[in-house]
Amino acid sequence: FSPEVASLNMGTMNFDYTAAGARVGTWKHDWEESYVASSGERIAVNTPAFIEKVVKDLGDGHGTRFEFECYDVGHLYMLAHLAD
């Protein structure tokens, strides 16, 4: 696939949305409740090697433009590394 634009986090992230899940009254699919309940135990891994692969495969390979998501100084350094 060749998305025109994509969001790309500049580092590993933790997403815990169990509090939001607690407000859901009815789940549409059987897997949703357990998936949301276990979100605090998972890590979204974005290593430098993975980020570079995404930029090369989608950016260089398909012309995708990125919205680079930076949430701390380390993410800014990663973005500077890519720009260089």
Structure description:
This protein has 84 residues and is α+β, with helices and mostly antiparallel strands. 44% of the residues lie in helices and 12% in strands. It has helices spanning 18-22, 32-37, 48-62, 73-83; strands spanning 5-9, 65-69. The longest helix has 15 residues, at 48-62. The chain is elongated, with a radius of gyration of 16 Å.
Task: Show the helix and strand layout.
Layout: E1 5-9, H1 18-22, H2 32-37, H3 48-62, E2 65-69, H4 73-83
Question: Care to give the gist of this entry?
Answer:
The chain has 84 residues and is an alpha+beta fold.
Quick one: overall form? elongated
Helix-strand pattern: EHHHEH
Mean pLDDT: 94
Major beta sheet, specifics? 2 strands, parallel
SS field, number of helical segments: 4
Q: What separation lies between the terminal Cα atoms?
A: 27 Å
Strand tally is: 2
Oligomeric state of the chains in view: single chain
Which consecutive residue ranges, at least 5 long each, have pLDDT under 50? Answer: none
Strand percentage: 5-15%
* Class by SSE composition: alpha+beta
Rg for CA atoms:
16 Å
* Spatial strand sequence of the major β-sheet: 1-2
List keywords for this structure.
84 residues, alpha+beta, 4 helices
